[in-house]
Amino acid sequence: AAEEAMEAAVAAEVSNKRVILKRHVTGFPTEDDMEVVTATVSLAVPPGLAAVVVKNLYLSCDPYMRRRMTKHSEPSYPEFVLGEVITTFGVSKVVESGHPDFKAGDLVWGMTACEEYTLITKLGSIFKINHPELPLSYYAGVLGMPGLTAFSGFFNVAKPKKGDYVFVSAASGAVGQLVGQLAKITGCYVVGSAGSDEKVNLLKTKFGFDDAFNYKKEHDLNAALKRCFQQGIDIYFDNVGGTMLDAALLNMRLHGRVAVCGMISQYNLEHPEGVRNLACVVTKRIRIEGFRVIEYFGTYRKFEEEMAGHLKEGNITYMEDVAEGIEKVPAALVGLFYGRNIGKQLVAIAPE
Amino acid sequence: AAEEAMEAAVAAEVSNKRVILKRHVTGFPTEDDMEVVTATVSLAVPPGLAAVVVKNLYLSCDPYMRRRMTKHSEPSYPEFVLGEVITTFGVSKVVESGHPDFKAGDLVWGMTACEEYTLITKLGSIFKINHPELPLSYYAGVLGMPGLTAFSGFFNVAKPKKGDYVFVSAASGAVGQLVGQLAKITGCYVVGSAGSDEKVNLLKTKFGFDDAFNYKKEHDLNAALKRCFQQGIDIYFDNVGGTMLDAALLNMRLHGRVAVCGMISQYNLEHPEGVRNLACVVTKRIRIEGFRVIEYFGTYRKFEEEMAGHLKEGNITYMEDVAEGIEKVPAALVGLFYGRNIGKQLVAIAPE
Question: How far apart are the CA of A315 and the nearest CA of chain B, in angstroms?
Fold first, then answer.
């Protein structure tokens, strides 16, 4: 029987293109920091292992991945291992299952890897897809990790009230576009910043932001925020950090809240920019709070239903930037740091 | 009757030495930025005015006052008015009252001014003293504004749990010495930093800190904190800001809390130091929250009873640094920024 299983496994071995990290990154990542290699993989789950083998359909490219490319010593944020496949969130189809909760053909999303087929052993990090009638790619975005990030960061960390003045940076990105729309649904006034006139235009016309500005065209971010928020800012949903955070602090209102989702402007700097206006935190009694979506995975099913409802009713729209083919993963990842993506960056790996 | 009142008022005029702000301050304050002048004051409350005239017994010198000496544009933090008396917290005796809640002879503490006699019109900013059996000067410290600051900042903002690792900067100061003792009462492990070996010794021997260090003797604050907190820091009670905050961020544990009480290291700098380690806020899900004691005045009576109990039972001790005479106010205020005070700095203005 063991021999038969072995033969079946060998028989089921297929070619598996994957993206590995070649070297730890300093400064801006380049495509050369990664390499697309071809390995082989067994499509059979090793006997006795509570795991699934999945075929990856969509892979997500997210700014936080840059931090895992740096050699660091932050145990809560493990580094990618040199020479091994880069892990990421994705949408996948189960090929074979070694666990009763999953069966071949199931559609799932969650933590997988930048390759065609992945053996997933941490089954707590994947979720079955309950709304396959919506675009499957949404589970790498609005119905997946970035969606839950926007939702939990905005409602649980920023704690909005109707009428709040809300500022969102990187506002057309995977998370920002959703925070803006959730803010409007909540009855807030919302302004976004982005890095091109095209993106600014999208914020105002497609995503319903009350106002938006192109930060690359502003000489003085403090003045730009003063212009957009004559009453000051109640909530700053921070995706960028650095000088934008510094300017936002000057414009926060009493008891303002800064929900820190990410700091993309800092990830490629060897010496992060200094934030100088923290004294405002005392005078204006500001709360700055970082969060990570992994703490909210327990709330996913509730979120999925609410967000699916919003999408079906047309309350929320979502824009994706889809590259085609595993070979495009390195360029798509690098492009995030130049703002090349318009909307959520993902890569289609295989037809649905 | 009006004439009689007028005559009585004129008759009751007395000499009143007061400390005025001569010029707005940049950089470190000097005694020359202030001036002690002699005016006259009526000891009678103007007819029809809901106010009290008090004789000031003790005046408090606090770091936050430096911020009010700068010309700025922060409406929630009004500047001192040039040529006018500097306001501060103090302990006073009512000389005459125009309000039924107060009568001559009452002992009060609250917002008064750096002078011998003050007409107080904001009666919501003063409190009658319920424990005159304790040293009256305590109402300028442990039973007054600094005490309530330590208590509310530690319990309401930092939200300690038994076993938490707590770091306090400016730890022998008016607020810091209390935060450390409250942390010990709560069952925390507490380490303080201070600016002299004498102060460090006090922290360990008199105030019961588990450990302490002289920050002026440390070349690398990050290394000093790593040495003192091998498990990392759950709560940083920040009185200083700047490089100490930056080092603390590197040493915070998951879900660490930074209660920002003040940033004395930054008040005299024209360009504040940049804080570079804010990215930790995301990876470690840190909350940084500023607060001001004025929001907690509504809880004062409860605090007063609890703190008076601790003092009587010997659970908490308090160290004061008392200068003598109104002429000493400028030097005492300036001295705060050189760490000359050992314990809570106040000035005795008149015998009790």
Answer: 29
